[in-house]
Write a structure and sequence with these properties.
The chain is α+β, with helices and mostly antiparallel strands and 135 residues long. It has two domains: 83 residues, Sandwich (ATP Synthase, domain 1); 46 residues. Helix content is 28%, strand content 45%. It contains two helices and eight strands. Strands 1, 2, 3, 4, 5, 6, 7 and 8 form an eight-stranded mixed sheet that branches. β3 and β4 form a beta hairpin. α1 packs antiparallel against α2. The longest helix is centred in the C-terminal third of the chain and has 22 residues.
Length: 135
C-alpha cells in the first residue's frame, strides 16, 4: 500500500505523488512516515525532507508550516518548499548574505522582522545543504 504525499505552499503545489516513505523535519526532530502511520498533526521545522520511491531518494528543502498524516495520505502545508533541482545556489547565497547583513544592522528591526530574517537565513542554509548533497 503506497503513501500519497502532497506538499503545498501558499504559492503552488510543489509535489504530489504516491511514494514508499517520507522523512519530515519537525520541531521535535525528524519523523519517518510509512504506510499505515497513526494519524498525526505536527509542526514542520526548516530542514530537509526526504522522499523515497522505488529505491530512489529525493530531497526537498522545506520551511515552516505543518504536516498532517491521515491514513495513507501525508499533506505538508509549508511556508516554503522547493525541490533540489529548482534551487538556484547563487541566488540563495546572495539572499542569505543580504539577510545576514540586515541582521547585523538589526538594531532598528521589530522582533517580527528579526525573526523573519533569521528564518530566511535558516531556510537558505537548508536549500544550500540540499543542493550541495549532489556535489
Amino acid at each position: 500500500m503506497p503513501l500519497i504525499l502532497e506538499i503545498v505552499t501558499p504559492e503552488a503545489k510543489v509535489y504530489s505523488d504516491t511514494i514508499d516513505s517520507v522523512v519530515i523535519p519537525t520541531v521535535e526532530g525528524e519523523i519517518g512516515i510509512l504506510p499505515g502511520h497513526i494519524p498525526l498533526l505536527t509542526q514542520i521545522e526548516n530542514g530537509e525532507l526526504r522522499i523515497t520511491k522505488g529505491g530512489i531518494t529525493q530531497w526537498l528543502a522545506v520551511g515552516g508550516g505543518f504536516a498532517q498524516i491521515d491514513g495513507d495520505t501525508v499533506r505538508v502545508l509549508a511556508e516554503n518548499a522547493i525541490t533540489e533541482e529548482k534551487i538556484d545556489e547563487t541566488a540563495v547565497e546572495n539572499a542569505m548574505k543580504r539577510a545576514e547583513q540586515e541582521l547585523k544592522e538589526a538594531k532598528h528591526l521589530d522582533p517580527q522582522q528579526y525573526e523573519h530574517l533569521q528564518s530566511l537565513v535558516r531556510y537558505s542554509g537548508v536549500q544550500l545543504a540540499v543542493k550541495r548533497r549532489r556535489h
